[in-house]
Fold:
Amino acid sequence: MSKLECDFCGTTDTNDNPIISGDNASICKACINAAHDIMTGSKEPESQDMTSSSEVNKSVEIKTPAQLKEILDDYVIGQNRAKKVLSVAVYNHYKRIFRRHEIDDDTEINKSNVLLIGPTGSGKTLLAQTIAKYLDVPLAIADATSLTEAGYVGDDVENVVTRLIQAANGDIKKAETGIIFIDEVDKVARMSENRSITRDVSGEGVQQALLKIVEGATINVPPKGGRKHPGQDAMQVDTTNILFICGGAFDGLEDIIKKKQGGNVLGFNQEKKSKNDASLISKVEADDLVKYGLIPELIGRLHMIATLNEITEDDMVHILTEPKNALIKQYIKLFELDNVKLEFEEEALKEVARLAIVRKTGARGLRSILEDVMLDIMYDLPKYKNKTVTITKDVVTKEKEPKIA
Structure:
């Protein structure tokens, strides 16, 4: 026997929202309460679309691309081209949602999802996090390698939408105008043109599963995540106004671009010459991504492509000191709480940056290096009260103790 459905909102019968059924009609508790509010004048009648738009519009201010980039500049060092691309995409996306009533004809504006291409630790995730934070919209981050097609062991692709709802504290309408960041999308690329007889669980199948939600569709998602199964309560979510940002390192993409341009990709020194070649990556086109292994349909839904450069040693030093949440600023504040002054010599900062470059983990390696350097100092911090602690290069290399004055 199929579950009752409300004829007004389409929801199914649950313990929290029971449905009353009469002659050829059914209505749920939520719709009864809404009708009561309207009849008593405690709530103005309005369409579902108007409700969702106005409610979210109160919290989302449509900032200009220049304003968005200025915010990103406070937290992300360099990557100016990528910040411009993302700022324009976000501005157009939310303008499309909240100012659509100003369009006086039947013109439809499609959303512009974004693909960020850059090495590990270059700032892809930080860009998405910063944008979401300052627009006050929910953000869900997923690793493409953990996703599978429905029916296989792993996370259903739809579960990233469940995470977005959780980030919105259960507010589906707010989630429907949020941002989903899918990292390492390059890891689900087809590795060869030769197709296997068996199903591709973590590669092309995931890309196919992503198509529906990235383009925009109404999907049923389990309220607590996990596997969908018959008889389980599900929430309906429209992904049409969710902005998708995909990111990946795309190692080896340079060789595809160089080959297209007629360059030779063979030779003993080729890897050194071609790896992370920013000038080549910036020339990436859709057909290069197809050759890499992304399916054309998915590329067609990622309309804007931004490339990020590999972070240099100088960039690392700036990342340590300049952003609003810079690690050095954080440590200085922590020391101030114990009435201790903390100073870093320039050579010490350069050594931390050099170690991060060696680890090849980008800017995310800076914290682990500093945590290791500062552990013993932080342990003894209370005894340095009213003194100045100076970190030198020798402290970073573990050759000497910090200067105490």
